[in-house]
Write a structure and sequence with these properties.
globular, alpha/beta
Length: 344
């Protein structure tokens, strides 16, 4: 075994020991970095809520090493849930299932359901295998703020409050997992993500309810969420410059997040590159939010991606960052054009 492999194994074992001893560990997944605790240790789970400032009635996602652990946490698991697990796990998909009675209320927010997923990041997989149980883990940031996609993001926000931060490099997906409620006859998408409606349809067929307004107590369902300190203003390609100009001429420090730099961008307005690929946009979105804050921007105008595929998940995160919720994640660009045109 090489020195690097030895160090890797020692670090993973150290993190698993911290979890067994009731501590909290930040670790990478393919989506974002999670703030983990032993999901059966109520005191450790409660500390997650204290560190994040998260309401205690908001459920947490329990991360597992593989699908074979599902019956330890859920009951009455439908065949369609197994089909989704086998198709997309390990990966960025969370399943809502009926919980077993012994699952702590602290994890489920007092609900009779539990959120479960198997992450694909190698370091998360190694940690979960070494630990051997479920790890409750929301994103490793203050509640409602921008999710972390690097270990440095976690250190800057929560570093002094954690026993250990596992550094697995930048997250490859960059936005939170797709959440599907499997507790009714027709599975419902509660939160869009990298596993798209089309992906799910390929397994479930017509027996799928598209992205719908989700229950209040669902991970990442706050109307204002994933938000930078800059005020986010959503726009289309056609009205982005008019919105930028309207805020800029009133003396605000303004930035534009868009796939290309407009030739008529006003002098003094910062351009943040949003790229042209939805996959890359998801990877960089939260980093661009953090960049906006580092630049001291007061206003960040964002050109919305098309309402298809991964673009639906990106629109959801952008609408929440703007404090508009996700009910309109699939609304037309005509409706987007009418939102927040005039500065207050």
């Amino acid at each position: 075994m090489s020195r690097d492999n030895t160090t890797f194994q020692q670090t993973v074992l150290e993190a698993a020991t911290v979890l067994r001893n009731g501590g909290n560990v930040a670790f990478p997944t393919e989506t974002v970095y999670g703030l983990g605790a032993d999901a059966r240790n109520i005191e450790a789970v409660n500390r997650i809520f204290a560190i994040k400032g998260r309401p205690a009635d908001h459920p947490l996602i329990v991360h597992l090493a593989d699908e074979s652990q599902l019956p330890e946490w859920a009951r009455e698991i439908p065949s369609k849930a197994w089909q989704l697990a086998r198709a997309f796990w390990p990966g960025p998909l969370t399943l809502i299932l009926n919980r077993r009675p012994e699952v702590p209320d602290a994890v489920t927010g007092g609900l009779e359901t539990v959120a479960l997923r198997v992450p694909s990041h190698p370091l998360a997989q190694a940690l979960l295998s070494a630990f051997g149980g479920g790890v409750a883990a929301p994103s490793a940031n203050r509640y409602g703020r921008v999710s972390p996609t690097t270990a440095d993001d976690v250190r800057s926000e929560l570093g002094s409050e954690l026993e250990l931060i596992l550094d697995g490099g930048p997250c490859q997906v960059g936005i939170e997992s797709t959440i599907v409620d499997m507790t009714s006859a027709s599975p419902r998408i509660l939160r869009p993500g990298a596993i798209t409606e089309e992906d799910l349809f390929s397994i479930l067929g017509d027996n799928l309810t598209p992205v719908t307004p989700s229950p209040v107590h669902c991970p990442g369902n706050k109307p204002s969420h994933y938000a930078p300190r800059s005020r986010v203003i959503i726009a289309t390609h056609d009205n982005a410059i008019s919105k930028v100009t309207a805020w800029h001429i009133r003396g605000n420090r303004v930035g534009l997040l868009s796939p290309s730099r407009p030739p008529d961008l006003p002098s003094g307005v910062s351009w943040l590159d949003f790229t042209k690929s939805n996959t890359t946009q998801a990877m960089v979105l939260y980093q661009r939010f953090r960049q906006a804050d580092q630049l001291g921007l007061q206003i960040l105008v964002v050109v919305m991606p098309p309402e298809q595929g991964l673009g639906i998940a990106l629109r959801d995160r952008l609408l929440r960052a703007a404090g508009l919720g996700s009910i309109t994640a699939q609304m037309s660009d005509h409706t987007v054009e009418s939102l927040e045109t005039i500065p207050d």
